[in-house]
Specification:
The chain has helices at residues 3-10, 60-82, 107-122; strands at 28-31, 34-37, 88-99, 129-135, 144-152. The two termini are 20 Å apart. By secondary structure, the protein is an alpha+beta fold. The chain is built from 3 helices and 5 strands. A 5-stranded mixed sheet has the order 1-2-5-3-4, covered by helices on one side. The radius of gyration is 14 Å and the shape is globular. The model has no long low-confidence stretch (mean pLDDT 97).
């Protein structure tokens, strides 16, 4: 077991299977020393546990938890191309999309779910730049979607 996966276990988390693509793309690709993930939905065992807009059908707290699931799914996508999460030198960038009710402005707090999980799991290697963007709708009516970019140790 890798150090990163041991840390996940300490936190009571399990790295999920890679979420199969919903269309014509790969869950993650490597280019040089970087891995770029596709946007990861908060799929759990092949299903979205919650759907709808944050600030309407979905609470900000629920959405923050879903962003954590997205980050776990992103780590699984990274592992699918690297074979080992211990190869991560650092998370470079996180982009979070939040399907938002028209008056919801708490996107940064929602995407904190992903950022905080990456910090808990990777420590200083999980510190990153980030964007948190409110959108009208996401695939499958998901409340949140997260993509990450990581740099690999050489």
């Amino acid at each position: 077991m890798s150090v990163v996966e041991a840390r996940l276990a300490e936190l009571g988390l399990t790295l999920p299977e890679v979420v199969p693509p919903l269309a014509a793309y790969q869950p993650a690709v490597q280019s040089g020393v970087h891995v770029y993930t596709a946007g990861q939905l908060p799929m759990v065992e092949g299903k979205l546990p919650v759907t709808g807009k944050v600030g309407a059908e979905v609470t900000p707290e629920e959405a923050k938890d879903l962003a954590r699931v997205c980050a776990l799914n992103a780590l699984a996508a990274v592992k699918s191309v690297t074979g080992d999460l211990d190869r991560i030198a650092r998370v470079v960038k996180v982009v979070g999309f939040v399907a938002s009710a028209s008056d919801f402005t708490g996107q940064p707090g929602v995407v904190n779910g992903a950022s905080e999980l990456l910090g808990e799991v990777l420590g200083d290697k999980g510190v990153h730049a980030r964007s948190a963007v409110g959108v009208a709708v996401l695939p499958l009516d998901a409340p949140v979607e997260v993509e990450i970019q990581v740099e690999l140790a050489q």
